[in-house]
Automatic annotation (TrEMBL):
Organism from which the protein derives: Mastigocoleus testarum BC008
PROSITE patterns listed in its UniProt record: ADH_ZINC
Domain Alcohol dehydrogenase-like N-terminal: from-to ranges: 34-151
Protein name: Aldehyde dismutase
Keyword field contains Metal-binding: yes
Cofactor(s) demanded: Zn(2+)
Length: 395
């Protein structure tokens, strides 16, 4: 095997599917005997990839994009003991060594050994230089620690579309709910009806929430969420978010809120078409009850070249933190530690506790169609695009 192709970043809104190097079991100039090479079965387009596509998260030109990877092991290094050739595995988007203090504490989102510049590593970003996985083949290091093996290959392929979400957005949405304190009987507001917001809604239901309300400016995405049995509020309307929540619950507040939008948020009402990077956070602070919690899996960055003002370009947002403080609320931020949740979410899928096709609206595409799908996703398509590099899913 020597050929490989991948989705390559050429600049903002400019992607190409190019021939790229076949991955090697190497880290720089040294052998990576703890790694494996995967033949990718499913590699999805994520909202985080859209930040890069739009030029709002900078990466070097030539970067191979993609961090949601599910694949079949085709080669394993000498030191890999428990993952075998032929296994179907899910790859957490966090690159983690499994050896540092943070990894041993379960914080694989802030591994200290996989990025020389910051305690965070991820495929397909400028976070440690790890090539992305929107390609035919990918190398994964620290395989015994990082990879989640699906117990039965045939069963996994039957549910591969749902299982493809376990690499990122399902645990990310779940993490947002957990950090917000969602539990049995909770009322929950989820900002954003994109794929992560839809996963958060499904996660809140799995965790026992009594009422899950999803807000967005995209009417097609809201219709998809409504069809799946969740409450929705339309942020383009003149009515405020608390007013719309009160129309559903009888009170203008919720127990928990989850920000699944991040720094590319829009305002609402008359500002629904305007960039307001702190909007989702301030909305969550407004609607949460005293003593409630907010989970923030939506991405916020320290540098945003496309932001509306100089402060926002440096990651400095205007937050009503006084309101947050006086309410004695808790706020949990950061990337999700995928390995903390992926096994139990896999089991929930395999045993029929999570069926995601209705709310996710999957569209399986070939690798060559990826640039076109990025464009469609950028316009707010109510879909989850899953790239099938080898026609494994179609077959």
């Amino acid at each position: 095997m020597s050929g490989n192709r991948g989705v390559v970043y050429k600049g903002p809104k400019n992607l190409e599917v190019d021939n790229i190097d076949f991955p090697k079991l190497e880290l720089g100039k040294r052998k990576c005997e703890h790694g494996v090479i995967l033949k990718n079965v499913a590699t999805n387009i994520c909202g985080s990839d859209q930040h890069i596509f739009r030029g709002r998260f900078t990466v070097p030109e030539g970067t191979i994009l993609g961090h949601e990877i599910t694949g079949e092991v085709v080669e394993a290094g000498r030191d890999v003991e428990f993952i075998k050739v032929g296994d179907i595995v899910s790859v957490p988007f966090n690159v983690a060594c499994g050896r540092c203090r943070n990894c041993k504490d379960g914080h694989t989102d802030v591994c200290m050994n996989v990025n020389d510049d910051a305690p965070v590593g991820a495929y397909g970003f400028d976070l440690g230089g790890w090539p992305g996985g929107q390609s035919e083949y990918t190398m994964v290091p620290y395989a015994d620690f990082n990879l989640l093996k699906f117990p039965d290959k045939d069963q996994a392929m039957e549910k591969i579309l749902d299982l493809a979400l376990v690499s990122d957005i399902l645990p990310t949405g779940f993490h947002g709910c957990v950090t917000a304190g969602v539990g049995v009987g909770s009322t929950v507001y989820i900002a954003g009806a994109g794929p992560v917001g839809r996963c958060a809604a499904a996660s809140a239901r799995l965790l026992g929430a009594a009422c899950v309300i999803v807000g967005d400016v995209n009417k097609e995405r809201l219709a998809l969420v409504k069809k799946a049995g969740f409450e929705t509020i339309d942020l383009t309307l003149d009515a405020s978010i608390p007013e719309q929540i009160e129309a559903i619950l009888g009170v203008p507040e919720v127990d928990c809120a989850v920000d699944c939008v991040g720094y590319e948020a829009h305002g609402h009402g008359l500002d629904a078409d305007r960039d307001v990077p702190e909007a989702a956070l301030n909305d969550a602070m407004e609607v949460i009850r005293a003593g409630g919690g907010i989970g923030v899996p939506g991405i916020y960055v320290g540098a945003d070249p496309g932001a509306i003002d100089e402060n926002s370009k440096q990651g400095n947002l205007s937050l009503n933190f006084g309101k947050a403080w006086i309410k004695s609320m808790s706020i949990g931020t950061g990337m999700a530690p995928i390995a903390k949740y992926n096994r139990q979410l896999m089991q929930a899928i395999l045993w029929g506790r999570l069926e995601l096709s209705t709310i996710m609206n999957y569209q399986v595409i070939s690798l060559d169609k990826a640039p076109e799908a990025y464009q469609e996703f950028d316009f707010g398509a109510p879909k989850k695009f899953i790239i099938d590099p080898h026609n494994s899913i179609v077959a």
